[in-house]
């Protein structure tokens, strides 16, 4: 009796399995399940574009409709990855155009996307619907025009924090009059002014438009007319909020906001003048997400706004909120899940708001029972505060603390912040992401290694004393997937001792540490399933093995060494004639 | 390129399976500020001594630090870890705050032109440089240069490595170029605030750095008819860079 499930039945069952994690498990059961699964997977996510070749992905998932790719390492956001390192979208787009022409959705993060890429997308995928580019660069507004003009079923076009060569606002006028399918448009990172009449016409012929994020150049006056055309918006990113409007315009705008019954998310608000804050009061009770991180609003005005936001789940704000403002958040925003507080001073310490201390975060941790994700920039912190926070919120999943002064100790006791992070690691059993800062010894990492069993991503800067630090982390954190480290004083020993661990992780980034060239060579040799990239802007050929390298990026891969490395990226395959280092191998 | 950072321990001590000694390891806390050799500022590890401690007077030139004034936390690349869009926004806010008088407009333009359109670098003054025939561009910090000669030298080093046995980005060995005197195969050009491409070198350096948006090392043959300072705007050609 054939006990196998007929593939049609299996296919049907799998149509209910959405999560890729589950699908990955399904594909491991047996060959026929692998086959059925791969033929039915619609949504493919590749979190490191160099871990696998585009051809292999296209071959395995011929029915792909949605592809998500990530390119550069996270520290590229902070300019630690030199220009030209890689992360090119082109090979992927080319491969998909050839093998998966039914592709509908493309989501790229930290990749280099050129106008040619965008033109290729426009020309190759007849039913293209969704383009989301996050922290990408390399294209101009001409490329956007190509997408606008050709993708007749476009639903989403979102540019999140991209670096775009802005050649003007004409691109928007390339959306044809026949395009009525738009659901989401985000051009907040562009500089140039788009033609208001084009934007208004686009909005009025898009009955399904739910999310609109304008750029700074869209005036407050223009906002009014846009809102009247789209009162159904669920997400709104305003433009500049600072034009002087006459009384009539103000009351019209106020009316427009009060008509927006579906609004859940609000952002933008650049340069918002205090006298315009009341315009937002009518939408506050419905908001679940509020991004004030570009709004230079002072504490008293912020408080007025936040007391009305009783359903807020996500709040991004600048440290202008001060401890007092965070106390108000703690008492008003009981549904809060995610808090991010950014610095308001570009000069770092001198201009940083000193009326915001560790106390602000402590208040929120006390008042908001659902708080699970924190990003907090501040000048100084204490162990006691972290212990309190950990005790209040053992349900924290993401804790990123950035004490802006490197090596800053507990400002009350002058001790390292080891005990504070110990409390966090120990009590927050579901902690998945952690960023540490301030003065830290190896002990802190011993604690994290011992307790951080669910930790997947860890970011470290200016910390630790020795190799022990890295050893604790690599040997202790069982779930560790991404580790990024800068300016820490450890060298080769821990790295080489825990080499096997690196194959269980997605990637490891180390910059301005003391890893030697010889260790990199040795690691490359011993671990063929890893790409060990040395990123160094000074030539390596004549370097002695003992000299430290500037940056090292290690990631597991099925694709072998990549073929698009610039001159300043070295791998062992590049210069095999240099040979293996003559380090002794036990 | 032997430098002060070279590890003192013998290479044979680096072994797989070597037990770790407490507090030891191969790393030693380093280094005098302003170390020499090719490593210099780039390679040295910043330690607590480099940063004035919290709570003490903020003056970076505090007497307790030997040598050059230590970097403030905002001078360290990529620190604090804020994305480029946010950083640019902060810098612009700072610039706007500092104005009270007629300097406002000029400063705004300067700040905006040199920081906003830049590929996310925090430090004011980084601009993009492309070269004909080279797919991948580089970036150069204008503020780290004091003259055209300086800048030309950096660009020559960047695109045409002159150390023996190495191959520059262009894949050729070359003798030093002379980008500024018209004697080489390439000329240095720049795009100004108005979008015009001009030959570098015509205006005083200070004026140049406030109006340059980006640079291009162009083949001399293609540079014919390129705008010089006094060109009639009607004749300007918009060169879309490679």
TrEMBL record, chain A:
Keywords associated with the record: Auxin signaling pathway, Developmental protein, Nucleus, Ubl conjugation pathway
Listed GO MF terms: auxin binding
A GO BP entry: pollen maturation
Domain of life: Eukaryota
Keyword Nucleus among record annotations: yes
Main location: nucleus
Compartments it resides in: Nucleus
A GO cellular-component term linked to this record: nucleus
Pfam families to which the protein is assigned, alphabetical: F-box_5, Transp_inhibit
Official protein name in the record: F-box domain-containing protein
Organism field: Brassica campestris
From TrEMBL, chain B:
Ranges where the record places region Disordered: 55-114
Pfam families: AUX_IAA
Biased composition (Polar residues): 86-95
Subcellular location: Nucleus
Ranges of Basic and acidic residues composition bias in the record: 96-114
Major localization class: nucleus
Superkingdom of the source species: Eukaryota
Signal peptide range: none
Record key words, sorted: Auxin signaling pathway, Nucleus, Repressor, Transcription, Transcription regulation
Biological processes per GO annotation: auxin-activated signaling pathway; regulation of DNA-templated transcription
Domain PB1: 124-220
Stored InterPro entries: AUX/IAA_dom, AUX_IAA, PB1-like
Record note on quaternary structure: Homodimers and heterodimers.
Primary role: Aux/IAA proteins are short-lived transcriptional factors that function as repressors of early auxin response genes at low auxin concentrations.
Entry protein name: Auxin-responsive protein
Organism (species): Brassica campestris
